[in-house]
Amino acid sequence: MTHPSWTYPGSRWWKFDFHTHTPASKDTGHWQATVGTADEVTPEAWLLRYMAAEIDCVAVTDHNSGGWIDKLKAAYAQMMAQAEAGNLPPGFREITIFPGVEISASGGVHMLAIFNPQAATGDIDSLLGAVGYTGTKGNGDGETGRSVVEVIEEVLKVNVGAIPIPAHADAVKGLLRVNPGTRKCVLSAAMVKQALEVGGLLAVEWCDPATPYPEAVEKLANPLARVLGSDCHNFRGSKTPGSAFTWVKMAKPTLEGLRLALLDGNGVSLRRSDEEPFNPFQTPAHVIRSIEIDKAQFMGNGNAARLEFSPYFNAIVGGRGTGKSTVVHALRLVTRREGEIQLLPKESEPLERFEAFNTIATRRDDSGALKAETAIRLEWEHEGRQLRLRWSATGQRTSVEEWGDGQWHSSPSQSVNPSRFPVRLFSQGQIAAMAGGGRPALLTIIDEAAGVESFRQAFEEATRTFFVQRARLREIDGKLATLPEVERRLQEADRKLKALAQGDHAAVQQAYARIQHQTRAVEETLAQLRDAAARLRETASGLLLDDWLPQHFGDTETDLLAWRADADALLARARQRLEQEADTLEQGASRLEGDARLAAWRVRTAPAREAHQQLQAQLAAQGVADPQAFARLTQERQQLEVQAKTLRQLQTDRARLEADNKAQQALIVKRRQAMTHQRQDFLSKKLQKNPHVRISVIPFGFDSTAIERSLRDLLDVKDERFVDDILTGENGQARSGLAYDIATADEPDKMAKLESVRHRLIEPSEMLGGHFRNFLKKKADKPEFADHVLTWFPEDDLKIEYQRDGRWYAISEGSQGQRSAALLAFLLAFGEEPIVLDQPEDDLDNHLIYDLIVQQIRENKLRRQLIVVTHNPNVVVNGDADLVHVMDFKGGQCIVAQSGALQEKAVRDEVCRVMEGGREAFSRRWKRLGREV
């Protein structure tokens, strides 16, 4: 029996009606009146009404009778048989019948007894006999001869198992009702107290949550679970199926599962329908459905090791060497998140362990955990869509598949990135490492959660624009370098032409030069007119509306399609007018070319052209060495005038581009600062009032060594050269150097100090060492070097503090446990993506495990999926794991020995077997009532 769309393993929520009646109860007036008529309520009809209300579990609790139990079970069995045969009865859905009875104890107090689903009418009758009920079965006014205490005790003795629950305890015939306007018991306070002290009483049916307990027994009553049922006596009025119920969290609907849920109580495994709205089937947007590890060195040989996951809290437990961390490493590989752990210092233990795992072993005694044929498959769910990631050791790559048409097929997008498959993975020791030298890894996580990527892209785009502008400036400068020579040649051409103009033929030459200018002007004008017509045609051809996708607009949307047709027609008319204007312009240009005025001009200038030709012939006849000198010089001067004009325009362009470039540099600073501010805002919001950790973003960092690495990357100096100039230290402490200057600058002065260091890199001064100056001068030979220096920003760093005894201390002063606790408090404070934690309790003391991990797990699993590898039973038990996988090592292989919910005895036994302190953890969880259960 499952929710129609619920296909996840582990615990889930069941809609449970704790108090119902059938026609077996004599006070069901309407039902009694219809007996023997067409409207008679049959067992099938009764069940279908509860099915229609989507009740998953129904306790059948007739007054002093179990007369309908067998009838209902027989009717349900017949309906199930029809469903399994493919003949599904209309309105049928699976439901679990919990046989029960509402007993009237001595004094008229009503007591529910809820039995194991396997119980029958005969078991109810046996209990009625045990409590001394001899009245009419089904009569709510009949009473046993036994007290409430005795009835409770007899219910607890039932061989098949039963749970006593005082019915409508705050209302008529209830055990805990009070006199109006007071908190005094209607019944004897001593008797009520005696009843509440019976071991095994776990819950009461409570109708009005606003009604307080009687003052005399408040402390005894407070630990009891408060459940709700419809108390339906017919299908009319307000008390009908689905009108009042309790959500119960169980692995399966069993009496043992119910008993443990009642022990957990309200807010943990029980939620009443009269509380705030609750959607028990709401799952996170992203869920890891399962992982399969096939043919690894010590896992998945023979059959692939498969672990399925609940969308909530999954615990993986087992002894050392049973494959727990293998699952975490496999998750990291298949989701391509190895880059996060590789940001840790090379000597860090978590990185070393992962690198050792991520090695292909060629022999069984090799250290690697993979083989050449190792494959990892992970099924992922995102808002109802099913995806699968497939990773293979050969090639170290992941492919993406989608589920459709009953099979897996290759996804059109093979991208595997944090935005598409968001998951947080923290291997054993990784959290503590991030508090120290692994802060870049932590910053990456913060950036991903804070949405810094879009700010980073804006910064990088601004930087690219800056580089393009700088390259353009260099290109312009190269061209402008020719301007002085062009101006010299132009002056020389002018002098020669003036000299030629001094002779007798000066007038002819001058007239010809004037005509040449006019001719060029006319030709350029005609060319511009024809070009304008071509541009109009190009514009017209580009005036188009985007097509509407036919799958989104059917034939029925006639009005919308007609509207679109009008829009197309409007644009078509505009396009037509533009084309007509282009035709008009071309025709006009042709007319102008043949215009009489132009013809008259040609006739008018013809004598001057002929005079120039005659002059050239005369000069040639007279033996002039260069008869074309005047024409050549005239043409040369014209060309030089054009070049000079172009270059002078470039000077104007350069001034504007230089101003744009300065503004662009300011924009780069602004966008880089926006990244810092986004990080700061995120941390401020997520850590507000956090009692464990405080994190500040330090712009451009405070760690001289980290800034030194960044600076050496900029300069492409990977060795230890130029120590005296970049960073020098004494006794492990930085003392001087460019990196030290930036690291030690006060925050308001950081930007100014960074600009000072940039200036010294671009224009080396005598303050730097000779070798370093020579190196920088050689670097400056590459013009792009200055560009990269001007856009260099050391990465921000994180100042992490933890709280101890009400005071804040630098994280470096804390123990590994304190560092882990502080970072863990932060990492669990945000995010809705799946999170995987490998032994987060390492180095933490017990109070931190409960106050930090257990509480955070309970809060986190309401919004995100958790997969936690742990050795601590308190994490599993008190964190209320929805699904537990118990790992073991058998036959040379790591295997999943047991999987299931904590309410399953086999799972609890395995947890106790492999986890020291497991039984004590279970005992503490279920000693809520102050006694062992």
From TrEMBL:
<feature type="domain" description="ATPase AAA-type core">
    <location>
        <begin position="764"/>
        <end position="876"/>
    </location>
</feature>
<dbReference type="InterPro" id="IPR016195">
    <property type="entry name" value="Pol/histidinol_Pase-like"/>
</dbReference>
<feature type="coiled-coil region">
    <location>
        <begin position="564"/>
        <end position="595"/>
    </location>
</feature>
<dbReference type="InterPro" id="IPR003959">
    <property type="entry name" value="ATPase_AAA_core"/>
</dbReference>
<dbReference type="InterPro" id="IPR052018">
    <property type="entry name" value="PHP_domain"/>
</dbReference>
<dbReference type="InterPro" id="IPR054787">
    <property type="entry name" value="TrlF_ATPase"/>
</dbReference>
<keyword id="KW-0175">Coiled coil</keyword>
<dbReference type="GO" id="GO:0016887">
    <property type="term" value="F:ATP hydrolysis activity"/>
</dbReference>
<dbReference type="GO" id="GO:0004534">
    <property type="term" value="F:5'-3' RNA exonuclease activity"/>
</dbReference>
<protein>
    <recommendedName>
        <fullName>ATPase AAA-type core domain-containing protein</fullName>
    </recommendedName>
</protein>
<feature type="coiled-coil region">
    <location>
        <begin position="483"/>
        <end position="539"/>
    </location>
</feature>
<dbReference type="GO" id="GO:0035312">
    <property type="term" value="F:5'-3' DNA exonuclease activity"/>
</dbReference>
<feature type="coiled-coil region">
    <location>
        <begin position="630"/>
        <end position="667"/>
    </location>
</feature>
<dbReference type="GO" id="GO:0005524">
    <property type="term" value="F:ATP binding"/>
</dbReference>
<dbReference type="Pfam" id="PF13304">
    <property type="entry name" value="AAA_21"/>
</dbReference>
<dbReference type="InterPro" id="IPR027417">
    <property type="entry name" value="P-loop_NTPase"/>
</dbReference>
